[in-house]
Every structure is written in C-alpha cells, then in structure tokens.
Amino acid sequence: MAKNIKKALKDFWYGKPHTAEEGGRRLGELYEDKTGLLKHREWRGFKDTMYYMYNIWGYNYVHMVTDILKYSKNPIDFFKGTWRYRWMGQTYLPVIHWFERGLQGMRGEALAASAWHYRAMVSASIHQICNFFNADTRLHGGKETEAYKHSFYANETTCGTLFYPWKDAGYQYIPMEMIPYFVTCHVNSHTVLNYIDAVQSIGLPGDPCPMCQAESGLFVLDDVPDSAPFIITCNEACDASVSTHTLQDWFADKPLFALPLPMQFDDPLVKKYCMNEIEECWKFIEEQTGVPFDWECMKKYLERQNKLQRDEWEKWEVASKTDYYPINGVAQALFRIYSTQYGIQGTFWEEASEKVKKIMYKCVEKKINPFPQTRHRVIAWSCAPLYYSNWCTWAYNCWGLNVIINMDSLMFDMEIRTDSYEHMLEDVAQYHMWAPMRRMAVGGMHHIFELWEYMEKFNCDMVAMYDQLQCKGMQGVHGLFEDEFRKRNIKAFWMPHALPDCRTVSRAEIRRQINDYMTTVMHEEPLDPSLLDFDDSMTW
Amino acid sequence: MCKIGKFFLKLLGILFAANAALFVVFFFDLDGKLLFNVVEPFLKKHYDNMERKDVLQEAYDMDKFPKYKY
After folding, report:
1. Tens digits of residue pLDDT in A309-328
2. I want to staple A433 with a disulfide (CB 3.0 to 4.6 A). Which of A120, A265, A394, B3 is the partner?
C-alpha cells in the first residue's frame, strides 16, 4: 500500500516512466479510436504538464490572436478570409492539436525547445495569412488596396531571399502555395484532398506528384486569394510542376515571370545561366513595381539570414557531437525548411532560434540528455510525408529512434556573401538552385548520396529513407540506394508515402513498416508497446 | 475582514475556478473534440456548398501580357 502511494506520488510529480519495463506511460491508450483525438492529454509530471498547459497550449492560443492583431490591417478581414477559403478555416483551427502530435511524450528541455520551433512556424504562418487577406481584392469588394499594390506572388519553392531588395520599400512577397498547400498538409491533412480531387476531376491523371496536383487544384476550386498584381513561378523540382504552372498561368491571368530551377546545377554554365535569369526576374519586378533593386536592403536582410544560418550551424555542432540537442525530429525539419524557404520576413525565426540556443546551452552545461531513451541516432533522407511529419515523435516514443537530422534541414547549408554584388548574385543563384526537393532529391547522383557524409558528420547509425511513391525522380534511384545500403552495411528502413495524400499510404501502414523492420531485422522490443498498432485513420 | 481583503479573496476564488475550468478543457482535449466534431463538419458543409467560379470557362489568353524578355 505504502509502496503504491509512493509510486503514485512519484508518477504525479515526475510523470510515468517511458519504458514498459519501468511500468510505462502507454501513450497509445490515450487515443480515441480512429480520430486521433485524446481521451485525455498525457500527464507529463506536475512541472511539465503545467508548462505544457500554460506555456505551450495557453500561450499559443493567446498568441494566435495577438499575431492576427499584429499582422492584420483589419482583423475583420481575417474572419472574412476564414469564411471564404477552405484551406484557411479547416487548417487554422486545429493548430494546437498539431503541436500535440509533434510534442507527444516530450519532457523538460525537449518539450520547451521543440515548442519554440512550432511557435515560430505558427507566427510565420499568420504573417503570411494576414498578407494574403490584407491584400485580397475578394475580401475588399474588388478594390485594389495599397496592400494589393505592394504585394507580389511567388511559387512556394522560389526562395524568399530573392525578394529582399524590395522589402524596405514596403513590398511583400507572398508564397502562393506555402499556406494553402504546404502548411495545411501538416496541420490538417483533410483539406488538401479536396484540391487533389478537384484537379483530377478535370482530367489530370492520378499518378503525377500529388503536390503538383494539389497546387493546381487550389486554382481549379477558385480558392486562391487575389492578393497580388503579378506572379513569379518556377518549375519546382519536377515536370509535373511545369503543368501546374501552365494551369496557374491560365487561371491567375496576371503578368507572370517563370524562373526555373535548373536540374544539373553543378555545371558552371548552368549556374551562369541561372544568375542571368535571376537578374531578369529582378528587372521584371522593377518594371512591375516601378521600384529599383535596393542593394543596401538586400545586404541588410542577407546578413540577418546569414546570422540565422550560423546559429543553425552552432546547433548542428551540438546535435552531431553530443546527446544534448533538445529539438525533436519533426520540429527540426519543419522549422528549417520553413525558415530557409520563407526567409527573413519578420523576427519570428531569430527569436525562436535565440530561445532554443539558450535551452540547448543549458543542456550542454548541465549535461542534460533531452532524449534519454535514444537507441539509434537516425538521419531521415529524401522528402517526408507531410501528413505524417510527426512520425519522428512516434518513432522515438515507441522505439527509441531519435531523428537527429534530415535532408530538408540540410538543403540550404550555406551563407551568402555580401561583400560585392557579384558574389551575392553567385551565392543567391546557388541558394535558389538548391531548392526543396531539388538539391538532394532530384538534383543528381552526387547530391543524393551526400547522405553518407552527413550520416557520418551527425554520428548517425541508421537511415530512415522516405519513399515518395509518386515522385518519378526518386523512384528511379530506389535500387541504387538499396545496393549502397547493402554495400556499406548501413541499417536503413524505407517509409513509403504519397507526400500530402494520406489515402495512398496510411499512417498506420508507415508505422507497420517501421515496426516490421525493428522486430524482424533489428530484433528489438518496443519501448512503449501500446504505440505499435492503433487506428488514427480519420485524424487531422 | 476589510473590504479589500474580501475583494482579493473573491478574486482569488475566481482565478482558481477559471484555472480549474481551463485545466479541464486542456486535460480532456475538449478544444480538440469541439473542433473535430462540431466546428470542422460545420465549416466543411459551408465550403462544400459554396458557389465557385468555373475557372475552366475562362479563356487562356496566352498573348495577353508581354514575353518579359530582358
């Protein structure tokens, strides 16, 4: 009896232990069947539960409102936009549940630091949403407001870095699909299915990349705000995207500049060609806005971006050489791909990075291991399932697989020189060409196999290999990876998925594949057996 | 007890009750349940029934704008 009371008090204060042998917290039993909703939230111990409730759950609900007040010219527009656009209404509401999925089971420093990455992403998203709605003619009775005249659209894989020169003149670039497509898939995977189905309903076959399908589907359903007088597009990483932009050109019906991402970017002649095209793009913006390229402004924002990159290198140093890095796999990947792609558009990335560094150095000084149940240090490679980016959280909780680093984080692994215009242009072209899904996914053999170098650098002993079933580029090198894994005797498991479309490969199927690998190849026992098999087919 | 003391006691009581209510919402994921079971179906119905422009009826004016060659 006394022993039971002592254990109950200990569980109340510290939370239940992670592993089954120690009594276990059995996180899988918290889920309601199918919906992924929680019967009740996890009791993480008194301190962490209170931290989660006040500093994450409550804090972020409050800041979702204050961010709207901060970035919106008229908060009423935000509500009008929510009512008008499906991607907005269905996505914005479950944001806090998105935190929950990514942070489940986290404790102490891992919980606090990872949540700051999420907080920055939410703030950046509200910034973008407000930019959309401040300028949208549909929400302003067809009127082209000053915000509209000072905005321009760019494809989401055209990096925000390119558009710094017009920032101080009050011009805001808006990545056309980053919120309506990319962010929605992570927060609420139901939304994007409407857009995929819409584009297939007009005759597009079902097998091209579903990202391209969803992006054009947004236009087919007339669900893209009219927030900018002109557009800059690109081919993203594949031929399917070229079709997307033909449809976008048709449906948007605005002056459009196509700025391609070259495939063979190691060729110096290709790079020179790309530099010329970037300069042409800048001339197009000058012509459309009537405002000249501002070198000082470009330099100012590039220096802030370089500082953020150096911060990241500092964090990677700790991640690669110690066990004290407090960011979990999903928070690392999403923060990095989002911040490098959107660029310095506010202070949200820098603020979060500072806070995380502070927590990280506390871990280093006090020798706190934020992921004490790590059995394997994992590097995740290729493009991740957007509807299950939080698989890393599950994998740590269930198997002790700690995803230290991933391909998306490593794509823009560079500073941009600001000592002269020529150097800047050369580096910006490199940065532009190293776009998401281009550099290490469909950017040529050498870059695909940079995996081995990074695996060693980050001291990883296992590879989580994403297998995007509808990416023709990466499907073509599947066998090469298999051969290399065998030749190098590398422990690796494949994760099939269809980027945003959770109907093609379910989350349960992804988990089953990992479970099979861990039991039949690794002969390991799960840390938390309740997480092996559960039905979350209807979850956000 | 003086009036100020009573006021502070009342305030403390209200704060405690508000926190307890907030904790119930938080711990039992009542916000998630409300959004999933009530708000999202309502919004879905609204978006499904919304009148939308048939973009396929628009002409693809390929020559409407210049080529932007520099």
Report:
1. 999 999 999 999 999 999 99
2. A265
For residues A354 and A120, the answer to whether their CB atoms sit within 8 Å is: no
Cβ–Cβ gap A202/B52 under 8 Å: no
Q: What angle do CA A76, A82, A88 make, to 5 degrees?
A: 140
- All structural domains of chain B with their residue ranges: 3-50
Cα B31 to the chain's mean position, in Å? 10
pTM for the model: 0.96
For residue A222, give the nearest of B22, B46, B52 by CB distance.
B52
CB of A480 within 8 A of CB of A466?
Answer: no
Coil, strand or helix at A401: strand
In a domain, residue A214? The reply is yes
* Unique residue bearing structure tokens 């100020």: B4
CB atoms within 10 A of CB A222: 15
Least confidently predicted of A132-141, A272-281, A465-474: A465-474
pLDDT digits (tens, 9 = 90+) for A143-170: 999 999 999 999 999 999 999 999 999 9
Q: Helices A421-433 and A295-321 sit at what angle, rounded to 10 degrees?
A: 50
CA dist., res. B56 & res. A247, Å (int):
10
Give the dihedral sign, CA A394/A400/A401/A405. Answer: positive
Q: What does the alpha-carbon distance between residue A408 and residue A465 come to, in Å, rounded to a whole number?
A: 13
Q: Pick from B22, B39, B69: which is nearest to A93 by CB? A: B39
Number of domains in chain A: 1
CA distance A41 to A191: 25
Q: Which of A82, A200, A245, A250 to mutate to test the interface with B (most CBs of B within 10 A)?
A: A250
Residue among A200, A277, A280, A273 at smallest CA distance from A240: A200
Identify whether the C-beta of residue A155 lies closer than 8 Å to the C-beta of residue A176: yes
Q: What is the three-class DSSP state of B70? A: coil
Tokens found for residue B8: 């502070």
For residue A537, is it within any domain?
no
Residue A269 is encoded by which pair of tokens? 């002649």
As a whole number of angstroms, the distance between CA A12 and CA A91 comes to 34
pLDDT grade for B1, boundaries at 50, 70 and 90: low
Strand boundaries in A187-343, DSSP class E: 231-233, 256-258
Considering CB atoms only, which of B22, B36, B56 is closest to A202?
A: B56
Instruction: State the pLDDT at residue A394.
Output: 98
CB pairs under 8 A between A and B: 83
Residue A536 lies in a domain: no
Contacts of A89 in chain B (CB under 8 A): 43, 46-47
Task: Name the residue among A405, A390, A324, A392 with its Cα closest to residue A359.
Answer: A324
